[in-house]
Specification:
Low-confidence stretches: none
Mean pLDDT: 96
Largest sheet: 7 strands, mixed
Number of strands: 11
Shape: globular
Radius of gyration: 13 Å
Length: 126
């Protein structure tokens, strides 16, 4: 069964950058679509970004488009989320998720993703 572990979170100031990593094992990495979600206290889990199996297609939430970049290296079985110009509103637990297929190319529901990491905290101070 596919397992993932996030790393790279922490506390930063507004305007700073962070790179989150998602290292996967236990499955055939290049058969999965990967995504990042985030969840702030008291709020629903929110889609952030997704990347296709070979990395040629990406999708971003409007709230992060132009600031965040999702990437992957299938040889390293790793997905990254590069976060630039961070805002306090970006504060959340960030989760790496994987799906074998999607119901719709435009569907961003977390329920499409079968495998999840444990999550990692990102805190952006003012």
């Amino acid at each position: 069964q596919l397992q993932m572990a996030e790393s790279g979170g922490g506390l930063v100031q507004a305007g700073d950058s962070l790179r989150l990593s998602c290292a996967a094992h236990g499955g055939t990495f290049n058969t999965y679509i990967f995504a990042w979600f985030r969840q702030a206290p008291g709020k629903e889990r929110e889609f952030v970004a997704a990347i296709s199996r070979q990395g040629g297609g990406t999708m971003y939430a409007d709230s992060v488009k132009g600031r965040f970049t999702i990437s992957r290296d299938n040889a390293k079985s790793t997905v990254w989320l590069h976060m630039n110009r961070l805002k306090p509103e970006d504060t959340a637990v960030y989760y790496c998720a994987a799906a074998g297929t999607l119901t719709s190319a435009t569907e961003t529901s977390p329920y499409q993703y079968r495998f999840w990491g444990q999550g990692i905290q990102v805190t952006v101070s003012s």
